[in-house]
Design a protein that fits this description.
Subcellular location: Cell membrane; Endomembrane system
Strand content: 15-25%
Radius of gyration: 36 Å
Organism: Desulfovibrio porci
Mean pLDDT: 85
Keywords: ATP-binding, Cell membrane, Membrane, Metal-binding, Nucleotide-binding, Translocase, Transmembrane, Transmembrane helix
Largest sheet: 7 strands, mixed
Strand order of the largest sheet: 14-27-26-25-15-23-24
InterPro entries: ATPase_P-typ_cyto_dom_N, ATPase_P-typ_P_site, ATPase_P-typ_TM_dom_sf, ATPase_P-typ_transduc_dom_A_sf, ATPase_P-type_domA, HAD-like_sf, HAD_sf, Heavy-metal-associated_CS
Distance between the termini: 50 Å
Protein name: Copper-translocating P-type ATPase
Length: 790
């Protein structure tokens, strides 16, 4: 078994992954981080309490030596470090899930007997406080020895069932790394030993009635039971935090219908998905899930990508269209060719990305980590000083200092501090994946909520990214637009000529003309003598209605090269189209020396319908929106005006976009960049938060800190709103965790009693501690229901 390795972004260090055993609270993870982080060869370490994992960055070439040293050092601290198995995310998830279920089963197996012994113990020891009377043979004044021995007999099974608190807590103390278990062990152990001493002395005849009235068996047993119950509820709630990961795992079917490569008439064979290989032909029946990534060979249908992208509208597919694993086929039957299988599918990449994010830490967690490192020793010291203060400076009986000592120890809850941040990140990133937003780490999740400026690329973000034909103008001999047919050419004829010629081009605008020709049922025409001028246009001879036309389609410079100058009327039309954000193409007909401008084809990258509303919402959130585009100034400003964007920088090369982001950061702005992850890569890398736009079938998980699985600004809004909701949740958790301990510990120390109030019972203190962690986890689980409100 080898530790899983990967290279970090700067190529300077490689992280090793370990499964950590024996951690129970934030003090555990903080101790490991502090000690291992100072070892030779270790650059950085991140220990995740909920997932019980550690990621350790080391210098390349030192992995083996550091791995062995880390395992030994962690073992010396009283924990275990096992190199994480190099398995896929699905296997790792199932292993962790099975382990969690087994842990829950074991806890439940201990909990019921502990409750069974603790309840009668509570009735025997404190029944008189609840108005219950004991029979004379059990009453402490008439039968003190039986009273004491019965309580001891009821307590011993609870202590035995909860022995893991003592074994692990004592081991941590011996290794000078006390944990929450150490607090529980010392607190309940003190109550038990004090009571046991009184029992022994009472049975031997040393004032048995007085000894019987000074027992704390119920504090010990009920405390252990309540803490076990709290940990059981906490474990149950933590398991729900992985529901989003489980939902992603469930998208991949276990079997697929494979078609015979040679015998097309053979019936499909049902095989495990793990047995599929690239190139296999598969049958996708209506309503079934697509097992792997691939391309449609035959059939037409619509696929539901909602659980992958959050997009509820099914996407129509046909031959040559892409399919992604996990999507649901509609009513049509499809055959497909597998292209990416196993760990190479986009679904597998998404799952790995979510797993990475859930195991990461946000910068806001540093405060809790620092406090947790010193928390347990400080609580032990505080408990001792509080008990001594009551013993020395008050006239209270000896039971009061003991009660204070136990209450302070069991009131403290380092778990709540340790779980406050990672639980919110686990649930928040999981919810993001369900909504089509993949957040790669906790730092990006935290930073996205702080953005003050959002830089966006125009094409594919504010706009659809697919130019479409918006209009055709037929020009007369003077260059004026007309509704008449000129020289036998009308709008349909001009589009037929242009589409036939552009079929020989690979330019994005050419595809718009070809698609428009198909939509209008334009006939296909033979084309000869094609000449392509990159960046300018295309020319050739097109046969239409048994007549050859020498046709050229391109920009104004292309026409000028061919000896054609635009008239004033044509100039006015070109200016109006550019002002409206459209791209005009001129079309000429005729051989050299006799050609004339016959039409203007207007194309535009249409603004996404939701863009203006989303930009308005971003403004309401206090975010400034800046468009960075390589398009021309006039078109860019037209789109920005329609979308309501604050600022425009047009005609930028990729490096210039990065420079613009740097300039915004120099102004003190926290900058996010939204781009396609390819030509925007420099700006994405430089921004405080880079958001790479993809789609359900084309996710660039390598670019940016956040991957938007569906195009458009709605996904950006989801990312920012989710980040703010998660950070608000983390602050609530930290506020509760710190507030609970800051307020609860003085109360447990007897502060209220100093001013005439009651003493806090150790049982109530233990119950509060157990429920504190549960409250933090439960609050984090609220993020499972996050949605953007209108």
């Amino acid at each position: 078994m080898t530790a899983e390795k990967e290279t970090n972004n700067d190529g300077e260090a490689c992280p090793l992954r370990f499964d950590i055993g024996g951690m129970h609270c934030a003090a555990c993870s903080s101790r490991i981080e502090r000690v291992v982080g100072r070892m030779d060869g270790v650059d950085k370490i991140s220990v995740n309490l909920p997932t019980a994992t550690a990621k350790i960055w080391v210098k390349p070439g030192e992995e083996e030596a550091v791995r062995k040293a880390v395992m030994e050092r962690v073992a010396a601290l009283g924990f275990s470090a096992t190199p994480a198995a190099d398995v896929d995310a699905a296997t790792q998830y199932e292993t962790a899930r099975a382990k969690a279920l087994e842990d829950r089963r074991q806890r439940l197996g201990r909990l019921w007997p502990m409750i069974g012994f603790s309840v009668p113990l509570l009735v025997v020891s404190m029944g008189h406080m609840m108005g219950l009377s004991l029979p004379s043979w059990l009453e402490p004044h008439s039968a003190p020895r039986i009273f004491m021995l019965l309580q001891l007999l009821l307590t011993l099974p609870v202590v035995w069932l909860g022995r893991h608190f003592y074994l692990e807590g004592a081991a941590a103390l011996l290794h000078k790394s006390p944990t929450m278990d150490s607090l529980v062990a010392v607190g309940t152990g003190a109550a038990f030993l004090y009571s046991l001493g009184n029992t022994v002395l009472g049975v031997l005849g040393f004032d048995p009635v007085m000894r019987a009235m000074n027992l704390y068996y119920e504090s010990c047993a009920v405390l252990l039971t309540m803490i076990e119950l709290g940990q059981f509820l906490e474990a149950t709630a933590k398991r729900k935090a992985g529901d989003a990961m489980g939902a992603l795992m469930s998208l991949a079917p276990e079997t697929a219908l494979r078609l015979d490569r040679e015998d097309e008439a053979a019936p499909p064979e049902e095989v495990p998905v793990a047995a599929l290989r690239a190139g296999d032909r598969l049958l996708i029946r209506p309503g079934s899930r697509v097992p792997v990534d691939g391309v449609v060979l035959t059939g037409k249908s619509a696929v539901d990508l909602s659980l992958l992208t959050g997009e509820s509208i099914p996407v129509p597919v046909g031959p040559e269209d892409k399919l992604v694993a996990g999507s649901v086929n509609g009513e049509g039957s499809l055959t497909m060719r597998a292209e990416a299988v196993g760990r190479d599918t986009r679904l597998a990449r998404i799952i790995r990305l979510v797993r990475e994010a859930q195991g990461s830490k946000a910068p806001i967690a540093r405060l809790a980590d620092r406090v947790s490192f010193y928390f347990v020793p400080a609580v032990m010291l505080f408990a001792l000083l509080a008990a001594l203060a009551w013993l020395v400076f008050s006239a209270e009986p000896i039971s009061t200092p003991l009660s204070v000592f136990v209450a302070v120890l069991v009131m403290a809850c380092p778990c709540a501090m340790g779980l406050a941040t990672p639980m919110s990140i686990m649930v928040g990133t999981g919810r993001g994946a369900q909504l089509g937003v993949l957040i790669k780490n906790g730092a990006a999740l935290e930073q996205a909520g702080r953005l003050t400026t959002l830089a966006v690329d125009k094409t594919g973000t504010l706009t659809t990214g697919k130019p479409v034909l918006t209009g055709i103008s037929v020009l007369d001999a003077e260059g004026s637009a007309t509704d008449r047919t000129v020289d036998g050419l009308d709008e349909t004829a001009l589009l037929t000529l242009a589409a036939a010629l552009e079929a020989r081009s690979e330019h994005p605008l050419a595809l718009a003309l070809i698609n428009a020709g198909r939509e209008r049922n334009c006939p296909s025409c033979p084309v000869e003598d094609v000449e392509v001028s990159p960046g300018l246009g295309i020319a050739g001879t097109v046969l239409l209605n048994n007549q050859n036309y020498v046709v050229a389609v391109g920009n104004r410079a292309f026409m000028r090269e061919r000896g054609l100058e635009a008239s004033g009327a044509v100039d006015a039309q070109l200016a109006a189209l550019a002002e409206a954000g459209q791209t005009p193409l001129l079309l000429s007909v005729g051989a050299a020396g006799a050609a004339r401008l016959a039409g203007i084809l207007a194309l535009a990258d249409a603004l996404r319908p939701e863009s203006p509303a989303v930009v308005a919402r971003l403004h309401a959130m206090g975010v400034r929106v800046v468009m960075l585009t390589g398009d021309n100034e006039r078109t860019a400003r037209a789109v920005a005006r329609q979308a309501g964007v604050d600022e425009v920088a047009a005609g930028l090369l990729p490096a210039e976009k990065a420079d613009y982001v740097r300039r915004l950061q120099g102004e003190g702005q926290v900058v996010g960049m939204v781009g396609d992850g390819i030509n925007d890569a420099p700006a994405l890398a430089l921004a405080d938060v880079g958001m790479a736009v993809g789609t359900g079938v084309d996710v660039s998980a390598e670019a940016g800190d956040i991957v938007l699985m569906r195009g458009g600004m709605e996904a950006v809004l989801t990312a920012l709103a989710l980040s703010r909701a998660t950070m608000r949740n983390i602050r609530e958790n930290l506020g509760w965790a710190f507030g609970y301990n800051i307020l609860g510990l003085p109360v447990a120390a007897g502060l209220l009693h100093v001013f005439g109030g009651p003493m806090l019972s150790p049982m109530l203190a233990g119950t509060a501690m157990a429920l504190s962690s549960v409250s933090v986890v439960t609050n984090a689980l609220r993020l499972r229901f996050f949605k953007i409100t209108s």
